[in-house]
Amino acid sequence: MSTPVYQSGSGFEDTLMGVNFKNKLNYANNSYFVFGYEFAHHDAKRKSVVHYNVNSTMPPNGFSMSHTMTTLMDMDKQSHSFYMLDSHEFNDFFSLSGGTRYEFSLYDTNRNYNSNMMMNMGERPTNTKEFFNTDDTSHNLAFELTPNFTYSNTGKIYAKYERGFISPSPSQLVNKDQTSKSYYSADLDPEIFHTFELGIDDFWWDFYGFNLSVFYTLSKDEISYLGNPHATAGAFWKYYNIDETRRLGAELNLSQSFLDESLILKQGLTYLDAKISKGINDGLRIPYVSKIKALAGVEFAFNPNFSSFVDLTYFSRAKDGGKIDDTTGKMSQNAWIKDYFLSDVGVNYHYKQLQVLAGIRNLFDQKYYTYQNSASNQYLVGNGRNYYVEFKYIF
Questions:
Q1: Range of 87's domain?
Q2: Interior CA angle at 298 toward 293 and 299, to 5°?
Q3: SUPFAM superfamilies, per this entry (predicted)?
Q4: Domain with 371 in it: what CATH number?
Q5: What is the pLDDT of residues 333-352, one digit of tens each?
Q6: SS3 171
Q7: For residue 36, what pLDDT is reported?
């Protein structure tokens, strides 16, 4: 007997607010120093409702049950960042830029689980509550160095080294076990990466932009994911760090401007070979990373203050997370996730220091997966058609 499961009433809400104080000092010809402070507050709310009914006419008295499981989650991340950047032109042929950024983050996570079960066999309703709270802090440092070599009035060759980080989002700090259904701390480390890049940037014939770069990135503790928060048998998920990964790739970006730059066409193509380079999964492809990404877009400015855009993006197929052995961490049964297109449209309005952006992401409501475990027949569909409005004010 199959039992239908309903998840109506579930949803999520993400709010990101912040301020960025920045100052720029010009101290020589085409040379400047930038410093500032940025504050960001990320509030992630989740509501998961799973409900099902069981009705049986089996003798002697039959049986019926109603079960509702509700999970409320409120997760916060507060970040304080201090940064500085210096760019100095030594002569007409050589310039050097470099900068650093320090981030201090505070995390606070609260989860409330309630299970309400009612049966018609004379038993009292059972109500089970479970609470889980955790907090954490992180300190991270990034820096970069970029020498530029100018070979013409419009063209330059550059080399770049960046030591960066990706700190966990608030929702990534808590895992839920598939067997016991209990919450536990993910104990995640921030991802630290080192990127080496070589590129050429030019603007030809007063309308044709050209940028080509090749890069190599070595990452430690890259954050990955497995699980299904919408599983009918009860949500489960796990965020974990991958020992070491490496990415080798190339990126080409083109643009053409017409009608006094009122009309701009854009094309982009990225090739990325991403593999795990250390540990028990050495040599396997990094889950959920597409090898090919292609972009085509158009921007049109109706006047100096108001413009619109259309972007089409293609992502090639990628490997899913497969199964992971709880004891060894070995991945297996990694299957392919199908490729997909996304279409975005929007408008951009400027008035003095105010900027307003609004648009529609995934205009055609394309179905694609952000999580897949084909071995267990589990899938998580990505965001469908959604709308956004952003406001920016420059002081």
A1: 5-393
A2: 130
A3: Porins
A4: 2.40.170
A5: 888 999 999 999 999 999 88
A6: helix
A7: 97
